């Protein structure tokens, strides 16, 4: 079986209509700025340093290894909350033990990174221990109607966007998903832990995107339906919705709760009624991926179908569009850009992943 290119995998419907902007993204790393939002401050005391690191042209794992080398410790002793893109300017936090070869981390730097703040902290930073990310994105050679753009930004702020997985989850030209399919079909073995993880994530993302795309086409991606599993905004908390009440409808309209979709694994679906029927239909059509995920031992989980986009702003200049917004943990900026800028996925825009 030949996996189509990433652009075909990501030929996904927009929720708010055709994107009102044409232009180029990530012409330079400075056009894609990400600032991690932990949601807490350093303790000011403790057995660790909490470092704020600015990087450019370097990925998170590489920077962690350079910090470990500088400190004379093993890379596993360096903590970080999320992965950040190489081809961007990003600020994120790392933690290191106090007892290292370095006594003053302020200004420590290397190829592509610099420590801009250092404060004492009580705990090692764990993966996923962040609230979200702030984005500043520049669209070059931008063509748009200002009135249409303002209306689209208003709709995004009011209603959110579908939380699709973007190109980075599937690998270059869909390589991660192709590897998953070949592995599940018994054509290859994946013994490397990282390769297996990338393949499983790509397979889960493909099933999830399929479910979400169908609900976008049906107009239910931002509505709770009987049998849905609701996700509480900003948390991993979910609860079954056997029958939608006026209160739940009102909470969904103000983006306090969202419908969710399956991250496939073994076990029973948490959904019911027509929602479960839709998800089971997708599972039958994606049987190779679904059965492979179950054999790999993953458990059924849920992910929100809708992303709340916070503090979205725009600045217009001749040929340039500047965007700012905040997203919660696990959300992709490409999901927002997909509703704004034509050809986002075709441009191969990649970004960080926090899950």
Anisotropy-based shape: globular
What structural category arises from helix and sheet content? alpha+beta
CATH class label of the domain at 162-307: Alpha Beta
Multimeric state: single chain
Determine the CATH topology of the domain at 162-307: Pseudouridine synthase
H and E string: HEEEHEEEEEHEHHHEEHEHHEEEEH
Q: Give the biggest beta sheet.
A: 10 strands, mixed
Q: Which range does the strand content fall in?
A: 25-35%
Uncertain parts: 1-7
Supply the CATH architecture of the domain at 162-307.
Answer: 2-Layer Sandwich
> What is the number of beta strands?
16
Q: How would you characterize the overall build of this protein?
A:
With 355 residues, the protein is α+β, with helices and mostly antiparallel strands. Among the domains are: 40-121, TruD, catalytic domain (Pseudouridine synthase, 2-Layer Sandwich); 162-307, 2-Layer Sandwich (Pseudouridine synthase), CATH 3.30.2340. It is 30% helix and 27% strand. The protein contains ten helices and 16 strands. Strands 1, 2, 3, 4, 5, 6, 7, 8, 15 and 16 form a ten-stranded mixed β-sheet that branches. It has a four-stranded antiparallel β-sheet with strand order 11-10-12-13. A hairpin with an 8-residue loop joins strand 4 and strand 5 (89-97). Helix 5 crosses helix 6 and helix 8 (273-285) packs across helix 9 (287-295). The longest helix is centred in the middle third of the chain and has 26 residues, at 193-218. It is globular, with a radius of gyration of 21 Å. The two termini are 28 Å apart.
């Amino acid at each position: 079986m030949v996996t189509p290119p990433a652009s075909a995998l990501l030929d996904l419907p927009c929720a708010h209509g055709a994107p009102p902007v044409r232009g180029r993204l990530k012409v330079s790393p400075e056009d894609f700025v990400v600032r991690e939002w932990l949601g807490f401050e350093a303790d000011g005391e403790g057995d660790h340093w909490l470092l704020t690191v600015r990087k450019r042209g370097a990925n998170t794992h590489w920077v962690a290894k350079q910090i470990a080398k500088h400190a004379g410790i093993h890379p596993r002793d360096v903590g970080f909350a999320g992965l950040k893109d190489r081809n961007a300017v990003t600020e994120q936090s790392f933690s290191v033990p106090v007892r290292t070869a370095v006594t003053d981390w302020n200004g420590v730097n290397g190829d592509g990174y610099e420590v801009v703040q250092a404060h004492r902290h009580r705990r090692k930073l764990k993966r996923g221990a962040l609230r979200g990310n702030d984005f500043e994105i520049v669209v070059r050679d931008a063509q748009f109607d200002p009135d249409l753009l303002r209306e689209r930004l208003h709709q995004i702020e009011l209603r959110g966007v579908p939380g699709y997985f973007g190109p980075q989850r599937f690998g270059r030209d869909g390589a991660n998903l192709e590897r998953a399919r070949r592995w599940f079909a018994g054509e290859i073995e994946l013994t490397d832990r990282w390769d297996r993880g990338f393949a499983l994530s790509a397979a889960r993302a493909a099933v999830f995107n399929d479910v979400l795309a169908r609900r976008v086409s049906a107009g239910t991606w931002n509505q709770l339906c009987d049998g849905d599993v609701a996700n509480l905004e900003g948390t991993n908390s979910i609860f079954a919705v056997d029958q939608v009440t006026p209160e739940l409808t009102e909470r969904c309209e103000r983006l306090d709760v969202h419908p969710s979709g399956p991250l496939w694994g073994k076990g029973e679906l948490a959904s019911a009624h027509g929602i479960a029927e839709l998800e089971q239909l997708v599972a039958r059509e994606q049987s190779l991926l679904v059965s492979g995920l179950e054999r790999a031992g993953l458990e059924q989980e849920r992910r929100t179908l809708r992303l709340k986009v916070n503090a979205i702003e725009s600045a217009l200049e001749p040929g340039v569009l500047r965007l700012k917004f905040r997203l919660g943990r696990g959300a992709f900026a490409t999901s927002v850009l997909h509703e704004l800028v034509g050809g986002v996925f075709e441009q191969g825009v990649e970004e960080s992943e926090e899950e």
